[in-house]
Amino acid sequence: MKVTHDGGVAVVEDGRLRTSVEVEKLGNRARYTDLLDTDLIAVVLKSIGLHPSDIDTFVVDGWGFGGPTEVNTMAAGEPLELRVAAYREAQLADDSLRHEVFDGLRIGGREHRYHSYHHTTGHVMSAYATSPFAARREPAFVVVWDGGTLPRGYVASPDGAIENLGPIFGLIGNLYATFSMRFPPFRPEDIGVSDERLPYMQLSVPGKVMAYVAKGQPRPELCQVLDDIYRDELDVSLGFAEVFAESFLKRAEHLAVRPEDALASMQHWLGEQLVDSVRTMRSFRPGLPGNLCLAGGCALNIKWNTRIRTSAGFDEVYVPPFPNDSGSAFGAACAEHARISGSAAVQWSVFAGPRLTDEDRRTYGYRRRECDIENLARILHETGEPVVVLHGAAELGPRALGHRSIIAPATDPAAKDILNEIKVRESYRPVSPICIEDRAPEIFDPGTPDPFMLFDHTVRPGWRDRIPAVVHLDGSARLQTVDPQMDPTVGALLTAYDRLSGVPVLCNTSANLNGSGFFPDVASALRWGRTRLVWSEGWLYEKEPGRGDERSTEMNAI
Known about the structure:
Elements: E1 8-13, E2 16-22, H1 39-47, E3 58-61, E4 69-75, E5 78-84, E6 100-107, E7 110-117, H2 119-128, H3 132-135, E8 140-144, E9 152-156, E10 162-167, H4 174-180, H5 188-191, H6 201-212, H7 220-233, H8 240-251, H9 259-284, E11 291-295, H10 302-311, E12 316-318, H11 328-341, E13 366-370, H12 373-383, E14 387-390, E15 404-409, H13 415-423, E16 432-436, H14 440-443, E17 444-445, E18 457-459, H15 461-464, E19 476-477, E20 480-482, H16 488-501, E21 505-510, H17 522-528, E22 533-536, E23 539-543
Parallel strand pairs: 3-7, 8-11, 11-12, 14-22, 16-20
Antiparallel strand pairs: 1-2, 4-5, 6-7, 8-9, 9-10, 13-23, 14-15, 15-21, 16-21, 17-18, 18-19, 22-23
Helix pairs in contact: 2-11, 4-6, 4-8, 7-8, 7-9, 9-10, 12-16
């Protein structure tokens, strides 16, 4: 389990993932929510037919620095303090798979012993254990870079062993968000975030910045300023991010810096440092296969991932769909599985999150009728309207992949603005294309399989006017490819829509309240009411006439 932000519970049984549930995906909770109460563990277990007494080993993700520390949660409404392993290894010689053993985990009135691994170990294992390399029993390099640590290199082996290569360059991942929050529109006063949610702002800003920088251009003179600060002032500490940002503002004040250029320069410059460092890391073990896994929150940056894949000298690069802390509970379980079994690989599916609940069956002003996939494709083609699509188990990680999505045609250039308005998002935010896998190379460059939406693709010139809603300002797209054998429902929808329209692409964005996890049930989407159409498990919900302009303003702060 993960107790701190992006709290969650995952269950691995005999080398197979049973479920992985992030707290934010339960009851429309705010994004990045902690594990609020250990009673939620029992709730997750019950959803898959288990009881806490069925669990052989409980494992808690590590946190804090300087040795074992404490994290705080609740147990049946009473405060609970849990000792956990440190965030990362203290020195190069430390065993990354070393675990701490503690007592005192209370669930449903009973206490349990539990194990704890380094937070970075969870990242390593969530990436490697789910990778094609582990499945093929090949070793792989792993780079972990998140907001609390330097980018660190590892070599993970099929037997579960982890070799710690140490930091590969000197900037902690919080730099990107901290730097960005010194410029509009990402300053706290611009966003208007509540004091309660301010600590979570650093988690939400990087994804927005990644889109916003397409408005600007990297400037060589600004990159030189960044180089100079790194050379002259580097201090390896969490606080250095503030120093770095302040120094940039002072050193660059004579350069008439536009915010979008400053942020584009920072993204470009950090990407260069990362690619150079990863390439150098590869030379540490020249005899190993050219396999690389990326993990940690920084691996959500598709621009950096793409540059690493094309320029860092590796044959194959894998990023799991949960590289940030949404994969930490699963990673902790993978670490324990590897230690006790001597095998790292696990069987898993990206659709192993919570299933839709149906406690609230009210329709909130919608009429319900049967509607198969063929008819849903026809509705999308003929109306051009967005449809909330909810079915099966939810996706793991922060990105909706068709099970908790708003789907719309990509052929109307206004569709992006309509979706952003529906979701109360900034106008510069792109929406993602979802495309049949074997058709993607003709539409996108490179168009290689990208089922988790974690690499950058360019829309080919002949298609930019045909699918304008998914073309970002720089001509790129955050593509999700769909293999119909892996996801029959979404695959069938795309295939049917292609037959009708000649376009094997649709828009895809997450279905959720602003600032919350995915909708946990149909009633949430109906109560939200910001689309006229909602589809779920063969049923179409259509807003009754006369209620078309009623839209909920319900949302949470960041």
